[in-house]
Amino acid sequence: MTKYIAPDGEGFGTRLAQLRKTAGYTQEQLAAELGISRRRIAYYEAESDHPPVGFLADLARVLNTTTDALLGQGAGTRKRRPVSLSPRLERRLKQIERLSTKPKQQLLSIIDTFIAAEQHRGNGRSP
Prior knowledge:
By secondary structure, the protein is an all-alpha fold. The protein has helices spanning 12-22, 27-34, 38-45, 53-62, 67-70, 87-97, 101-121.
């Protein structure tokens, strides 16, 4: 299979590595976020292949970019709605982001459990 080279001459793997670093992820962190192995991220960054379409969409979502940007076809980040957080919640979220992968995943799992329980009771609002 031939490697995809964008009109700008940059390969997919190089672009993926740059976008990953810009988003502040290590290969290990990005892999954990996507639920895959670090070796798979390294594989794509080495330009051994391009990812399946479904994986490309997940990469774009996690890296806050577009599939076009990943493929070198367009502009960078997606625009997100501004979110208003309390200073306390914002500080806690930043602390969670700095945790290593395993404790972060455990904490997010606990949070997901609480949210699901509230929604199941009918008291919660969808996020």
